[in-house]
Amino acid sequence: MICDRQEQRRAFLDAAGLATARREPLAGDASTRRYERLHRPNGASLILMDQPPSLEAEPCPPAATPGERAALGYNALARLAAGRVEAFVACAGYLNGLGLSAPRVVFADPPAGFAVLEDLGDDLFARLMAAGADEAPLYEGAIAVLARLHAETPPDVLSGYGARWPLLAYDDLALKTGADLLPQWLPRFTGAPAPSAEAMVEWDACGPRCSCAATPAPASFAFATTTLKTCCGCRFGKGLRGWGCWISRTPCAPIRRGICRCSCTTPVGK
Q1: Please, are residues 117 and 108 in contact by the beta-carbon 8 Å criterion?
Q2: pLDDT digits over 114-154, tens only?
Q3: Of 42, 43, 44, 24, nearest to 34 (Cα)?
Q4: 3-state DSSP of 28-82
Q5: How confident is the model at residue 69 (pLDDT cuts 50, 70, 90)?
Q6: What is d(CA 57, CA 188) in angstroms, rounded to the nearest whole number?
């Protein structure tokens, strides 16, 4: 299977006109994707995204019932887009259309799980700050990007670079599925005892007080993860304050989300 994927990768790069590019493996992210930096003979570089479709459970179908989502697995319950390249490509096109600095898609074969992307470099916010950069314009740029997203009414279907992907609601089921990772996994990392049945009853009681549907609000486009190590600072000629903010190299499950009213401190997992 590994050899088959290597052959598919080589065939994709050949079709993209990048067969002679020098390939440099890059660190992965919290997903089943792999990345390579492609160094072209002219000195320019691009990014290869490789997401084997067979390594991920199915994404959430539009209008799926809670039972249907549970049967499909965690992706359909919480991640929604399931890391699909189609979602990434459509998401990048939507953000580019708003004048934001998502990586441009140079060449893609979404059904096969491949895409060649613009290389935004390695200037993550954390690295820039560690090197002495002024953090104020970084935070201001990221906030401006989020404000720009919230100012737009998101479409029901994202489209860009020839790809389309439904923009689903991050609902109570997704919220609770993500939050439930805390009692499931925290004891494994800390060595603490697993929560008792009584503690889990108390935990579940937080759900109605932390609900996406509790306060009606306009929907807005949202990212699932925003940290200093996933925001990339890059100069570009068109956008907000000259700074763009792309949340990692992943689409991070593009979601539609209203304002949530939270009266307890329930953490929300990715």
Answers
A1: no
A2: 999 999 888 878 888 889 988 888 888 888 888 888 888 88
A3: 24
A4: CCCCCCEEEEEECCCCCEEEEEECCHHHCCCCCCCCCCHHHHHHHCHHHHHHCCC
A5: very high
A6: 24
